[in-house]
TrEMBL record:
Belongs to the GMC oxidoreductase family. Its cofactor is FAD. It holds the Pfam family GMC_oxred_C. The keyword Flavoprotein applies. FAD binds at N133, A134, F135, V136, V265. This is Oxygen-dependent choline dehydrogenase.
Length: 604
């Protein structure tokens, strides 16, 4: 019997059972809380209202509630037990009970094998997508933050200034390549526990990078380009997130922190002086009102934040007019500048596996390791490991042609867990374009809004018109082709992988590419269009910028343009995602804002 399959096959049902249980328990609590209200909203006032308990919202709630009263409104519930297991991130991310599943309109330049349609999940639970992602913690290049400082004219976004915020919430553990840089670049006393992921394969990966002439370094140090291990958000074999670090330990003891689950915010309340003073929301479908004496902060994410702004009368005038929503503030950029990282994967056969490098356990060993995971005081073993560990950050010729000589725009990853395909072991390599020029949009479905009577309970998934438009720019395709060729060189031309007789599985080519010369430009263009996919690094739909930028929705202090006491703090404000993974960038954005708010409003 295949024990791994036996265990993982039941995960979806287990997730659903716990999601249903948590919702029913919270509904009973809600009905008891609201019973004395006689079915009428009782307005309560807090210093701050935070809409969305994702990566940014949880950190903000935890930091601000140390000194001010905070209401945190989250559309979902608590993360189910499966979310804490590193091995199960893919099953968790695909489950509709704890995720919003956003379908796209038809795409022209990727996902061809799916007819051009793609559905992407975003976490609908406390911790947001940080409770279902792959645990990877990459700050990105220092040049990402210097770029933000240039775009906004605000030096506080430069890496030199942002480094203090990273160090203030990090508790960085594990092995470093440049140990002498630990004190300079890493925090060691913060609430967010991070650890270097260093399975045996990393050493072989780093040797391959050096063999090809690349430097090796730490992904969260001042790395320009090169090969590196990953850092992951994990402690004692379990997930760490902004929820586990900043909210969960204090929710039952901190009197200034109020967390309401299953609460869908309908609109931000804005008075005649264009000052935000509260929100309307549905708690388990029951209408409620809350006021904020200081500020309202929207942290609903790249998809939901622009939709909430539009429902509140903030957005493109023509959209608001068509929807019959009174125009409070005409901001053309709401929902525009939708950005992400496109990705391509290649599979390779391993003719002579070196099991001293790859992480693999036989069935009897899986059973042994599973027992250790369940009963041991220290959680470790096969089911506590992540799929991706070795990585590389590289600068394409396309980026160099733009003068970005030391600013990586390609990320390559290698799966550390081989799989059996037929009678052969295979591994998967992913190539990610981290600074694409292609830009999409999140539109507002006016027809759906009008047919629902303006009721947000109809759901953001129905209200969103998602058009990724990835790989619509020629330079993006050129850069990905370069990344693919470099990845092939790592797998086919370096001693580590040549010794294992690694071979690209060209026989798995897309049907639409049959007849094209393998490895030719025409072949790779076809392959990219057919097999191109997306990461979960969505950003940009409420981007920050200067007042002169017609698409800027917030300023560099994350204040919504033209509206007082209203800010947006999540991935949607980032003009573009960083050159790695986005969770660290979102959390440092929230940490920066929390410090600013504590200073502006004079902490108690």
């Amino acid at each position: 019997m295949n024990l791994t399959f036996f265990i993982t096959a039941s995960i979806a049902l287990t997730i659903q059972k716990y999601a249903d249980k948590y919702r029913e328990e919270d509904l009973s609590k809600t009905l008891a809380d609201l019973e004395s209200d006689r079915s009428l909203p009782r307005i309560k006032t807090y210093d701050f209202i935070i809409v969305g308990g994702g990566e940014a919202g949880c950190l903000l709630a935890g930091r601000l509630s140390e000194h001010f009263s905070v209401l945190l409104l989250e559309s979902g519930g608590s993360p189910v037990p499966a979310t804490y297991n590193p091995y199960l991130d893919l099953q968790v991310a695909a489950h509709p009970a704890i995720n919003f599943m956003y379908p796209s309109v038809r795409q022209e330049n990727f996902a061809g094998e799916n007819g051009g349609f793609i559905t992407v999940p975003t976490g609908r639970m406390l911790g947001g997508s940080g409770s279902h992602n792959a645990f990877v913690y990459n700050r990105g290049s220092p040049l990402d933050y210097d770029h933000f400082a240039n775009l906004t004219g605000d030096e506080s976004w430069s890496y030199r200034e942002m480094l203090q915020h990273f160090k203030s919430f990090e508790s960085f553990h594990g092995k470093l390549i440049h140990e002498e840089e630990r004190a300079q670049y890493y925090g060691t006393t913060g609430p967010l526990f991070t650890e270097t992921d260093w399975p045996p394969l990393v050493d072989g990966w780093l040797r391959s990078g050096e063999e090809l002439g690349f430097q090796i370094g730490d992904s969260n140090g001042f790395l320009e380009d090169g090969f590196s291990p990953e850092v992951k958000l994990v402690k004692n074999g379990e997930r760490v997130s902004s929820f586990t670090a900043f909210v969960k330990p204090f929710e039952s003891t901190r009197t200034l922190l109020k967390v309401l689950r299953y609460s869908d915010v309908q609109t931000v309340l804005i008075d005649a002086h264009k000052r935000a003073y509260g929100v309307t929301y549905f708690r388990h479908g029951i209408p409620q009102i809350a006021h904020a004496s200081k500020e309202v902060i929207i942290s609903a994410g790249t998809f939901s934040s622009p939709l909430l702004l539009i429902r509140s009368g903030i957005g493109p005038r023509e959209v608001l007019t068509k929807a019959g929503i009174p125009v409070t503030q005409d901001l053309a950029g709401v929902g525009q500048n939708f950005r992400n990282h496109p990705t391509i994967r290649l599979s390779f056969n391993i003719g002579r596996p070196d099991w001293t490098l790859f992480s693999l356990l036989g069935e009897s060993q899986v059973e042994k390791e599973l027992t250790l995971y369940q009963n041991g005081d220290e959680r470790k073993g096969f089911f506590t490991e992540m799929d991706f560990s070795p990585q590389a950050f590289l600068v394409s010729k396309v980026a160099k042609s733009r003068g970005e000589i030391t600013w990586p725009d390609i990320r390559i990853m290698l799966n550390q867990h081989p799989a059996m395909v037929g009678n052969e072991w295979t591994v998967t390599m992913g190539v990610v374009l981290t600074r694409p020029m292609s830009v999409g949009r999140i539109g507002f479905n006016v027809t759906e809004y009008l047919s629902s009577g303006g009721d947000s309970a109809a759901g953001d998934v129905k209200m969103a018109v998602v058009d990724h438009r990835q790989l619509s720019r020629e330079e993006d395709i050129e850069a990905i082709m370069e990344g693919l060729r470099l990845g092939l060189k790592v797998m086919e031309d370096t001693s580590t992988f040549k010794a294992m007789n690694v071979r690209w599985r060209s026989e798995d080519s897309p049907v639409a590419c049959a007849g094209l010369p393998l490895r030719s430009d025409a072949y790779w263009r076809c392959y990219i269009k057919q097999r191109g996919g997306l990461t979960h690094h969505f950003s940009g739909t409420c981007k920050m910028g200067r007042n002169s930028d017609p698409l800027a929705v917030v300023d560099s202090n994350l204040r919504v343009r033209g509206i007082q006491n209203l800010r947006v703090a999540d991935a949607s404000i980032l003009p573009q995602p960083n050159d790695a993974t986005i969770v660290a960038q979102v959390m440092v954005t929230a940490e920066k804002l929390a410090r600013d708010l504590l200073r502006v409003h004079h902490r108690r």
